[in-house]
Amino acid sequence: MAKRLILLSALLLVACAIYIGLGAEGAWRFLLPYRATKLASMLLVGIGLSVATVLFQTITANRILTPSVMGFDALYVMVLTVLVHVLGGVGYASLPAALLFAMNVAGMTVLGMLLFGLLQKGARGDIMRLVLTGLILGILLRSVTEFLQRMIDPAEFQMVQSVSFARFTQVEPSLLALSALVTLPALALAWGMRNRLDVLGLGDATATGLGENPKSGQAQALVLICILVAASTALVGPMSGGGGSFFGLIVTALAHVITPSERHRILLPSAALTGCIILVGGQTVMERLLDLTTPLTVVIELIGGILFLVLLVKRKRA
Amino acid sequence: MIRLSGVSHFIGGAQILHDISLDLPKGGITALIGPNGAGKSTLLSLIARLTPLKQGEITVDTLKIGGCSDRDLARVLAIMAQSTHVSARLRVRELVGFGRYPWHRGRPGPADHALIEAALERFGLLPIADRFLDEISGGQRQRAFVAMAFAQDTDYLLLDEPLNNLDIAGARGLMRLLRDMADRDDKTILIVLHDINYAAAFADRIVALKNGRIAATGAPDQVISDTLLRDVFDTDAKISRIDGRPFVMV
Ligand SMILES: Nc1ncnc2c1ncn2[C@@H]1O[C@H](COP(=O)(O)OP(=O)(O)O)[C@@H](O)[C@H]1O
Ligand SMILES: [Mg+2]
């Protein structure tokens, strides 16, 4: 397993080098900081979302769920739409980026905590109820958004559309620093939970018997998930346009194949590396080789959607 | 000693357990029997802190359920829940290894590894130690879970209907291993059994539960009688005795 992690690391290094070096024309002085910022944001998002998905799948004991079912992305797009609706396109564009970032992170974390409050309520509160509530909430938020979008003018609607997909093209260095400031401590805490997560993966009863309280473990993991997803989404936009982000799904499915282990000390780095390779490699191909302006997330959604169906069908048979 | 005093439990307004007080002395096997829905699983999961205790008091040695840390309790009391489904894809050795978790919290030492191998050997799991849990039989899986509880090295062990889905060889094999743990290692075992004959054959004590109340306690040959079957189990099956040991004529 250690060998495979090293291999993944090497692969990621190569992908990063190609991304930085390929098609470099013009002054390095300008190109390098620009590309380095984009690369750093991809790595941050790749690690953040992958780790969040692993945590989410462990506490829900479900391999085909990702945190986006909780309606984070829908909330982001709604906040965006409301802002454009209230302030107008120009007003929105003149908002300080840091303020927007802070609002988004706060909004999404509060949403996550509210959902979590539901989990704690009632003796039989279980994680599946939380997921279902999040799912319904996401649909609700999306219909509110759609309603608002019908009322704003087409030019502004275009603007909302263009930032409703994750893009790594316009990343502000200051936002990147902010996002790192939020993401890195959360990652450190997630890593600190690795052994406990192994035990939580055994199911509530067995985990309790081994002295690991499932409720408190799930609560802590959920806080970290909210923070990680919020920080990435606030940085680059939502990773999904519609139903649920398939990025995390692809990453964890691949990580389970590449490093078939249930141990989080393997699974967490393996998923993080895989996530980064997909983002950096995918972006290189889209941007440099194909010269496409389609956001990478659209492609990821497409591949992820197919993978989702495959996983569903396989589960049915198993 | 496990001591329950004044334990009651309600689920959605319905009273499941009625003011139960019970002392289980250290050592030996106690079988918890009773008809379906009597409250056996509820009682066991209260002791195991799987269900939060709301009314009454339960202590295991000096530890008070609900008042002590989960960690401390995990070094004194091991449990095997009624459903042992694990969604993670684990090998037998990994599962048994988790039994050491309360002691090393994720950093196993050489002593832990030695104990894990010893548990695998004792429960006859060495030949299948590297197989995945979904590649072995139900009986082997149950044995793997008991081996995990054994590796946990606690004085007390609680099991909820571990014989479910086992054939006669599997069921007897498991009960013998438990008997051996009680005799050789001085474990105190509380086990929910629905087959009275197994309780009669392997338990030192019987606690019979009906409608959330204790209907009888005592040694098997004293407790198991026609009256018990009629009053507690609502059946007119007869008891016969072979060498003094009661058998239910089904
Ligand atoms: N989650 C629940 N909701 C409502 N009633 C329950 C629940 N769990 C158990 N009960 C009720 O509690 C009683 C005792 O259940 P249980 O302890 O599982 O019985 P046993 O293990 O002796 O068969 C039964 O009448 C059952 O219907
Ligand atoms: Mg039961």
Automatic annotation (TrEMBL), chain A:
Major localization listed first in the record, in broad terms: membrane
Any one GO BP annotation for this protein: siderophore-iron import into cell
Presence of the UniProt keyword Ribonucleoprotein in the record: no
Similarity remark: Belongs to the binding-protein-dependent transport system permease family. FecCD subfamily.
Protein's name in the database: Enterobactin ABC transporter permease
Keywords: Cell membrane, Membrane, Transmembrane, Transmembrane helix, Transport
Phylogenetic classification of the source organism: Bacteria, Pseudomonadati, Pseudomonadota, Alphaproteobacteria, Rhodobacterales
InterPro entries: ABC_BtuC-like (IPR037294), ABC_transptr_permease_BtuC (IPR000522)
Entry membrane topology: Multi-pass membrane protein
Residues making up the signal peptide according to the UniProt record: none
Superkingdom per UniProt: Bacteria
GO CC list: plasma membrane
Location of this chain's protein in the cell: Cell membrane
PROSITE patterns: PROKAR_LIPOPROTEIN
Transmembrane segments: 39-62, 74-93, 99-119, 175-193, 219-236, 266-286, 292-313
Any one GO MF annotation of this record: transmembrane transporter activity
From TrEMBL, chain B:
Superkingdom in the source lineage: Bacteria
Compartmental location: Cell membrane
BP GO terms, sorted: iron ion transport
GO annotations of cellular component type: plasma membrane
PROSITE patterns: ABC_TRANSPORTER_1 (PS00211), ABC_TRANSPORTER_2 (PS50893)
CDD domains, alphabetized: ABC_Iron-Siderophores_B12_Hemin
Listed name of the protein: ATP-binding cassette domain-containing protein
